[in-house]
Design brief:
heterodimer, A: mainly beta, six-stranded mixed beta sheet, globular, B: about 0% helix, about 55% strand
Chain lengths: ~110, ~110
Amino acid sequence: GQSLEQPSEVTAVEGAIVQINCTYQTSGFYGLSWYQQHDGGAPTFLSYNALDGLEETGRFSSFLSRSDSYGYLLLQELQMKDSASYFCAVRSPYNTDKLIFGTGTRLQVFP
Amino acid sequence: DVKVTQSSRYLVKRTGEKVFLECVQDMDHENMFWYRQDPGLGLRLIYFSYDVKMKEKGDIPEGYSVSREKKERFSLILESASTNQTSMYLCASSQLENQETQYFGPGTRLLVL
């Protein structure tokens, strides 16, 4: 089977850097995805790491280490609008071959 | 701009009623998904379809059925609504070989009394 663990909540101030971790237990997977969801809104795709290492997209970066069963989303120069829930997700051909989501991390950014 | 729409944002139904939730996408995507989202449980897959008239069960299909008669439309059916089906229901779509990038609708918040 597979499970993904994320911290339930993270707080930070504007301008800071925050890292949201995702640890997973799965017998094999294609890659690690990240989604953002604002309160009352729909999840939106942020990034996908098919390979180990760091992927950077503007203020957001995502990292994957298969050997450590670990990934993270890094948000830099935090803005109030970054307050949202963030979900990691994996898809494994050894399980249902469908995207499995973590329980989400609620990020609160304070002024 | 890509778009996934759901028929209702809010819905109130009574126990035992048959409930239809509709989802339409305009991106010509092969894959369509129905999830439910509950606090502390994240998004859980109910059903999935990769083609017209094709469907596969997700993690929690009990009490639900689906219909995909046209490529752009995927319906979720609650045959006999129960209070434990009170939840946020999210529809999503993706290209066939890129499930990792899913596009979500705004969601339907269903309350079963």
